[in-house]
Amino acid sequence: MGRRLVPAILITLLVVLHAQLWYGRGSLPSIALLRSDLAEQKQRNDQAVQANDQLEAEVRDLKEGLEMVEEHARMALGMVKTNEIYVQISR
């Protein structure tokens, strides 16, 4: 009886551990699924970073463009903002 008990316990323990490997939390299939989800999320993050960079560049271009338009309007047309005093000095 004692000689068969130890191998039976070890086999049972081996079966439980093997079942955990294939079906339990952290099993090989669930890890593969998590890796796939991680790869998809990284791809979405990269796309979001690219979209953010593009929007940032567009905002920067719009700001610079408006400054150039304002400078041209001030020099060529004498544009004055509210609460500003325009002084023209002739040479």
Automatic annotation (TrEMBL):
Topological domain spans for side Periplasmic: 24-91
Pfam families: DivIC
UniProt GO cellular component terms: cell division site; cell septum; plasma membrane
InterPro entries: Cell_div_FtsB, FtsL/DivIC
Coiled coil is among the record's keywords: yes
GO biological process, any: FtsZ-dependent cytokinesis
Topological category with respect to the lipid bilayer: Single-pass type II membrane protein
Coiled coil: 31-72
Family: Belongs to the FtsB family.
Full protein name: Cell division protein FtsB
Organism per entry: Rhodoferax antarcticus ANT.BR
Organism taxonomic ancestry: Bacteria, Pseudomonadati, Pseudomonadota, Betaproteobacteria, Burkholderiales
